[in-house]
Amino acid sequence: METGLLQFYVGDGKGKTTAAIGQIVRAHGAGLKCAMYQFLQADPAGETEALAALGVPVERAEGAFARPVEEMSPSERGAFFMAQRALYTKAVRAIRSESYDVVALDGILDLLQLGALDLDALYMALTSRPAGVEVLLTGRQMPRKFYDIAGYVTSMRAVKHPHFDGRAARRGIEY
């Protein structure tokens, strides 16, 4: 690709990961090489199987973490963040390798918000990437520092959601 841009999908609403996957499917269908790195994910999800069937690699951090971060002990949280940072290192290597035209960093902005990644390091990785690599980033909040380097910023806002009524997430719909 001649010029790769940064796409941010943010907000408290449903659809951030779905938008990134839709972009990957479109790019893959156009013959671009794509990869997805999913942060803060432990449970199996429908998108990983679908992308794998298309030949798009999806990577998640090593280790099983069944509890939300806020419920983890300090040692569990440390191990969890270490695994997430190892995945981040793989993702940055993939971006720099020029092996992919489109790389999705799903949930990376939430990892930043938790303090598990350095904002300046991610900023440097994004601004020093090869010119032809498009990077998709998702999460609840985009740091203001990223606004000027963004090509796209799309905000998903939760107006109504079954979670508001205490309903559990459904496989194939929310994950």
Question: Can you write the helix and strand succession as a string?
Answer: EHEHEHEHHEE
The count of strands amounts to 6
Largest sheet: 6 strands, parallel
Overall spatial form: globular
Task: Tell me, rounded to a whole number, the average pLDDT.
Answer: 91
Assign a percent range to the helix content: 25-40%
- What oligomeric state best describes the polypeptide chains here? single chain
Low-confidence stretches: none
Could you tell me how far the N terminus lies from the C terminus, measured between alpha carbons in angstroms? 30 Å
| Beta-strand percentage range | 15-25%
Name the structural class: alpha/beta
Spatial ordering of strands, largest sheet: 3-2-4-5-1-6
What is Rg? 16 Å
Topology:
Layout: E1 6-11, H1 16-29, E2 34-38, H2 46-54, E3 58-60, H3 74-97, E4 102-106, H4 108-113, H5 119-127, E5 134-139, E6 152-156
Parallel strand pairs: 1-5, 1-6, 2-3, 2-4, 4-5
Q: How would you explain this protein's 3D organization?
A:
This protein has five helices and six strands. The chain has a six-stranded parallel beta sheet with strand order 3-2-4-5-1-6, sandwiched between helices. It is an alpha/beta fold. 35% of the residues lie in helices and 17% in strands.
